[in-house]
Amino acid sequence: MLTFAPITPENAHILRPYYENCSYRLCEYAVGTKLMWSGYLKPSFAEAAGCLIVRNEIEGDVQFDLPVPSPEGDMDAALTAIEEYCTKSGLRPVISVVPREQTALLCGRYARVILTNKRMWKDYLYRASDLAEFAGRRYSGQRNHINKFRKEHPDARFVELTGADLPRLQEFWQAYEAEFQKDSFNARRELRYAREMFRLLDKGWFCAGGLEEDGRLVAVSLAEKCGETLIIHIEKALYSFAGAYPAVVQAFAGHFGGGCQWINREDDARDKGLRTSKLQYLPAELGSKVHLAVGSELDDLDAVPEIKTGRLVLDGLTESDKAAYNALCLDDERNRWWGYDYREDLRGELTEDYFLDVARQDFAKRMAVNFAVRLDGRLIGEAVLYNLDWRGGAELGCRIAPAYAGHGYGTEAFAAAAEWALYRLGLDRVVAKCYKENTASYRMLSSCMRRNGEDETFFYFIKTV
Question: Domains of the chain (ranges plus CATH)?
Answer without folding.
Answer: 5-121 (3.40.630.30), 123-266 (3.40.630.30), 297-464 (3.40.630.30)
